[in-house]
Design brief:
The protein is of the alpha+beta class. The chain is built from four helices and three strands; from the N terminus they run E-E-E-H-H-H-H.
Length: 105
């Protein structure tokens, strides 16, 4: 199998895998370590409220939210337009690493 990097922006890579049998796979790989550390840092310094008084609930990379939505048969846009879906994502313990404000939604 031959692999080529199609794009790399430092936190996300798109890879082309040629299986040699006429089939290829395109793979998106995202490193969310920096986003997790950012959310943790904001939480630790108490940056839970914006300058306008709103709660800074989370800092979530788009690929994470997109993958979560896709597993549920939804799109990223669906999650942004449906506050119930977004709340499901934010209340899921598996996604708590992206939370800045840990209060109840």
């Amino acid at each position: 199998m031959k692999t080529r990097i199609l794009s790399n922006n430092g936190y996300s890579r798109t890879l082309w895998h040629d299986h040699g049998d006429g089939k290829v796979t395109v793979q998106q790989v995202t490193d969310v370590t920096a986003a997790v550390e950012r959310a943790k840092g904001l939480h630790n310094i108490g940056a839970h409220t914006t300058g306008m008084g709103d709660k800074h609930v989370a800092s979530v990379p788009i690929p994470v939210l997109s993958e979560w939505a896709q597993k549920r048969g939804k799109t990223y846009a669906d999650v942004l337009q449906d506050s119930g879906l977004l709340k499901q994502f934010l209340e899921d313990p598996d996604n708590s690493v992206f939370r800045v404000w840990k209060g109840r939604l």
